Amino acid sequence: MPLTKTDLITTVAAHTGVAAKDVAAVLGGIEDVVVANVAKGEKVVITGFLTFDRTARAARDGRNPQTGETIKIKASKNPKVTAGASFKKVVNGQAPAPKIKG
Length: 102
What we know:
Blueprint: H1 5-16, H2 20-39, E1 44-46, E2 50-57, E3 60-63, E4 70-73, E5 76-83, H3 85-91
Antiparallel strand pairs: 1-2, 2-5, 3-4
Helix pairs in contact: 1-2
């Protein structure tokens, strides 16, 4: 079962001793800042944890799988999230995961 945003806020609040409403406000602020900066084409780096970036896909020809007809696919921009080195080490079992309260 995935950890939802509400679960994350509750767990961080219990772990840090900060009120859940304050954790929610900070998390919301982080989301807003990351989304706004990536939308402008800027990279956001949280060293060792995550990097948020934007990639561009060129326009290209594709095929409709039902008819086989050639279609034009427009150029687009997509978000890209990359795990940092410290995060990767924990996930791969090369470093211990942080202990959390709660």
